[in-house]
Task: structure prediction
Amino acid sequence: MMAIAMPGALAAQVITPAESAKIDAIVAQSLSRTGVPSASIAIVRGGEIVFAKAYGKQSEVIHTPRVDAPYQIASVSKQFTGAALLLLEDQGKLSLDDKVSQYIPGISDGDKITLRQLLNHTSGLQDYWPQDYSFAAMAKPTTPQGIVDRWAKKPLDYVPGTQWQYSNTGYVVAGMIVEKVAGMPLLSFLQKHVFKPLGMKAISQDDAIGPNYPQGYQRFALGPVRVEKPAAAGWLFAAGELSMSATDLAKWDIARMNRTLLPADDWAAQENPTLLADGTATNYGLGVSVGVANGHRFVEHSGEAVGFLSENIVFPDEKVAVIVLVNSDFSNAFTSIAGQITDMILPPPPKPAADAVEAAKTAAAHKLFDMLRTGTLDRTLMTENANYYFTDVALGDYRASLSALGEPKSFEAVRKPRARGGFINRNYKVVYEGQTLNIITYSEPGDTGRFEQFLVMPTQ
Result:
């Protein structure tokens, strides 16, 4: 493991030793649980990079994980392609409302698809890589035109603007338009206008292969973790070709928070949710997903390359960002780590009082269940009718049958409570190894309401 201290962080925003230890535990537990070889983490707080650390095995030959190692960020790259088109629009060289046919010939219904629809996934162009693995054609090199010829000349999946459907193909077309209008490769344009001004180091994933770079890994079901063969060159291009470190990606996130580099209206345009033709809102802008979680507005995108997964989530209003890059294309480690760190940095609001009440009711039901399975029933918790039901024979059957199951794995409510017959009905599910039980209860209203019914039965 290797960590670096980030200078310049606000005193009130630094990661404390306790928080650092918690992050270490989150990552260690996740890598151990899933078998993911390594993770690289960066955290922005108060608009500053306050934490950066690499964990685990980045390749078969990199023995000490490096924070500056460039991981393949895959579709997180899409927001950079979107930024390139926005910058060209600022330069007066194109409009996002131009039609694709003005720039690239031969695209199906290119005279009906706008550049904006390429970026917001409403173009109707069929996605060329919906699979979560490297398919047969990816063993041989391709070009953007090769992808266009095979996928972008098929009939559209739907009329442009009427549906939202993720399409890597649309981004390949968008990248081709950037190169044609700018007169240079997409990566060169981004180096000049984005990466160098922000002090970022970024390279093509096709070049991020070899002994100095993180290696991708795969796993078949729960089998051994194996080195994964990279895709041949050219397959991601503008849809996800970039490789960079978590700290370099954090610099871009800070620019987003501070509305620097791009004009403020470009950032806003990228984060504005797309509306379909019928007025339905999507949760996607121009290369980023957008929404609200626990009261916090977020801008997010994940990515998947061959052997790599990435998560980048930004909370612009709080000036917080969490970046997690892993060198595997299996398991949810990347999003699980990001979610747990986010909850630490921006704790979820306390549960409403009603939820606290239901948690207490669930605990009370769990306690009564334990009494029944151990033969220690406290009859003061029951109404007269319930005590009538629980005869010595009933109690004996409950104890004998339930104790034989051992300790339950979980006990949880299965739906919201509802009133009936002057009582409150609550149902629960108890899960054992190889067995699930249903519990149907009725109890008196109020905090101290007694149980009128507590029936345990097997599921179908």
